[in-house]
Write a structure and sequence with these properties.
The protein has about 280 residues and is α/β, with parallel strands linked by helices. It folds into two domains: about 5-155, Rossmann fold (3-Layer(aba) Sandwich), CATH 3.40.50.1980; about 165-275, Nitrogenase molybdenum iron protein domain (Rossmann fold). About 40% of the residues lie in helices and about 20% in strands. It is built from eleven helices and 14 strands. Strands 4-3-2-1-5-6 form a six-stranded mixed sheet. A four-stranded parallel sheet has the order 11-7-13-14. Strands 8-9 form a two-stranded antiparallel ribbon. It starts with a strand and ends with a helix.
């Protein structure tokens, strides 16, 4: 069995969904699903102390760190070396999501085991499916991966959507507001919604509240990246008034921010939200 190390929460979920959770030997500090992974050694941690900061303060701190050319993460190179992984799963899509670039390349250069490194960079739902299959192939579980992808597609083929499309503003951050990006606009469309501010297959970008109001949403979905449902609910309650809109907080970590096998559940959740009056 391969010794698998994951720097990416979505990759950790994929490994477990393929039945290989017991082959994981290490994780990032953000890998928290399923709960059993919390017992694994933590190989990376944030370089910034963000706990207790407001969204606006987090946004400024991250922007300043990136502008200086410094990484947002630190890798425990000694622990990484001692774990001797055969396969490392990471990403090269978002500097805010997980270790990537120079800090990871430097750490990998010193590992005697010379692990295979798989970079996951999905921007669409089709690419998430492709990543699931790539992970399956890398860990010897390609058949299970293809079955998982097929199962998700079958679930979505039975999806009940609202009779009329809902105008949606999906917020991946609220202070300042950020639009939906990458695979999320596809999720909204499949669930029966329409988000004029979304950027399918592209990075999420800052918005103004004037832009949010001008989009005239019927539903505002609050899905702050890196947050669970309780924090999303708190932030939803602090939003400025958006006339005519129903504000709905969701668990971004579980269903939207992490490009893993639970995206089908996220689409089903959106369909339920859009069907409500």
């Amino acid at each position: 069995m391969p010794r698998i190390l994951s720097f990416l929460p979505a990759a950790t979920e994929i490994v477990h969904a393929l039945g290989a959770g017991n082959e994981l030997v290490g994780r990032s500090h953000e890998c928290d699903y399923p709960a059993s992974v919390l017992e694994l050694p933590v190989v990376s941690k944030p370089a910034l102390a963000l706990e207790g900061l407001s969204q606006a303060e987090v946004d400024r701190a991250v922007a300043d760190r990136l502008a200086s050319g410094e990484s947002l993460y630190m890798v425990d190179e000694h622990l990484l070396d001692s774990l001797a992984p055969d396969v490392i799963l990471t990403q090269d899509l978002c500097q805010v999501c997980a270790p990537s670039g120079n800090e990871l390349s430097r750490a990998l250069a010193s590992i005697p085991s010379h692990p295979d490194v798989l970079y996951l960079t999905p921007r669409t739902l089709a690419e998430i499916d492709a990543n699931i299959v790539e992970v399956g192939r890398a860990i010897g579980r390609e058949a299970e991966a293809r079955a998982l992808v097929a199962h998700n597609h079958e679930r979505l083929s039975r999806l009940e959507r609202p009779a009329q499309r809902r105008r949606v503003a999906f917020l991946e951050w609220t202070d300042p507001p950020f639009c939906a990006g990458h695979w999320v606009p596809e999720m909204i469309e499949l669930a029966g919604g329409e988000d004029p501010l979304g950027r399918a297959g592209a990075d999420s970008v800052r918005l103004t509240w004037d832009e949010v109001h001008a989009s005239e949403p019927e539903v505002v979905v609050v899905a702050p990246c890196g947050y669970g449902l309780a924090e999303a609910a708190r932030l939803a309650g602090a939003l400025p008034e958006i006339p005519g809109a129903r504000v709905v907080p969701v668990d971004a970590n579980a269903y939207f921010a992490r490009p893993g096998p639970r995206y089908a559940e996220g689409i089903e959740l959106l369909a339920e939200i859009f069907a409500e009056r």
